[in-house]
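User: Can you help me understand a structure? I only have the sequence.
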Amino acid sequence: MCGISGFFQTGRKLQESNLIDMTNIQAHRGPDAAGYYFNESCGLGHRRLSILDLSDAANQPFWSADGKAVIVYNGEIYNFQEIAADLGMQMRTTSDTEVILEAFLKWGPECVHRFNGMFAFAVYKPESDQLFLCRDRMGIKPLYIYHKDGITAFSSELKGILALRPSIRLSLNKVAVRDYLHLGYVPEPLTISQEVAKFPSGSYATVNNDGLKIQSYWQPEDQIKSEIISNEAEAEKQLHSLLLSSVRYRMISDVPFGTFLSGGIDSSLVTALAQNLSEKPVNTFSIGFKESKYNESHYAKDVAKHLKTHHHEFIVGEQDALELIDKMTDAYDEPFADSSSLPTMLVSKLARKHVTMTLSGDGGDELFLGYGSYLWAARMAIPLLRTFKKPIGWLLSNHPDNRFKRAAHHFKYEDPDLMRSHIFSQEQYYYASTELDNLLKPAYRGSFSFHEGEFQKKLKRNLNVSEQQALFDLRFYLKDDLLTKVDRATMQFSLETRVPLLDYRIVSFALNLDPALKLKDGKSKYLLKKILYQYVPESMFDRPKWGFSIPLERWLNNELSYLIDQFASKEMCEKHRIIEFERLNKYIKEFKSGRTYLYNRIWQVIVLHKLLERIGLEQTS
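Assistant: Let's start by predicting it. Here is the structure, written out as tokens:
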């Protein structure tokens, strides 16, 4: 919806010009209006993308009816009309912004339990000189925070806080670099800057002259109950009802909207439900590459035809994609190796010509066991495979087929407590923890920031290994990779995207669903598919899962080989003093000699060095 920024300070170091800079550097998030509030201790900035109430009356910063509080807000509260009725409000606008503010004044921080939506907002009360920050349950909307030397600054994107330099100093976070090379993204709460954190999802904070106090109000693991939902008929009925409710909420809009339709299970289900609830054909958008291996748009076209949507199919050539490479790596202010951000940006750019809001199917795989990594988690838990992991790994690594060589890396681990991140990293072709001490300079070696098992110790029931892997993904991969990817890619082109499958009611339901109703008879996402097949024939999905990908391995050997020469070079390694060039060069040589599955490891280093060249963080010894 928007971009927010601001700060609270006990001194007078930051000025209104700082506020304007950190707000307007996010103009792409909100091209429709800009607004600012500033006094000696607090600044609030807002860039608006108008979705509800398109009039100037709903511009932000927005003041409460009594003039005692002001808000800047990014997101959507879908049930705002019901909350307004509970408050007995005489609304001045038809926007959800004023409802959030009045709810906060009425109920305080506990108001967040009433909200169904995606949101990050800041409320300031001048009389008490106190700032309140909040982020939604699943972390759909981003929020970054800096807290040091009497300044607490926040922003929807890290670039907003980077814009405060040289008034503040920012240095490179060495642990974040190691985490990134293992996962392909920087996990919450870390950022690439030592002084900046990702504001934790499902949390709120108060900021005043006494400092910053953050409190959690909702976490996925706290939703797990001792009993599971195992009656298939009842589970199907309940899930179907929740899905319809969630999609209906997310269709509320004062601007044209559509759905991203890849032709896969999740996007097809969201589209089918939206079309079922709509009185006219829903806009649908798909993208494909002219190179046949990476073009699955005909599957989306078939689904759209069956559902009778108003379908927009974009078939792009390699040059269209290559032209966005720089924009792709620059849109993320942290190292971000998920190359599917490129087709996401392409489809967002093209969809924005027709609509201002879209629905996506993100979340289905993590909630209903859709990834191959969940099968790997089950395999790796087999005692016999654990016992003989070294000889199995040796045999696979000496197989002539690259698929077996890649699979060998699954068995090359040392710490079983890091099994979840290890499985993830190898499924994504990233660096295993055992590789990093050879790749990294001594100052960057050590442990990771995340503790895979800590948050699972307090669960009310034991999860099987596939469920544990999915919960790890829900806490980290979904939030800090997939949702980050969609937010930055869409907002680069001022397009809002809503995620119906991540309605907190559906998340809570899925976390307590019998895993036998997620993975049944070898079929993943069993219950989700059962509902989908009421709208679209099962035969349309009788094919392997492919994913939203680009031919990156081939590009790095051809059109993008210059990126290896420029950003994976000895000179670049010596300049940034993070990567041991000799080890990196070995990966490059192996990649060029035929081990093409190593492409993502090389891509990670390219992205890291390219980012550091752009944002220029200080390096400490």
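Now, to help you interpret it: The domain at 2-218 is CATH 3.60.20.10 (Glutamine Phosphoribosylpyrophosphate, subunit 1, domain 1). Residues 384 and 392 are 11 Å apart (CA to CA). Let me know which part you'd like to focus on.
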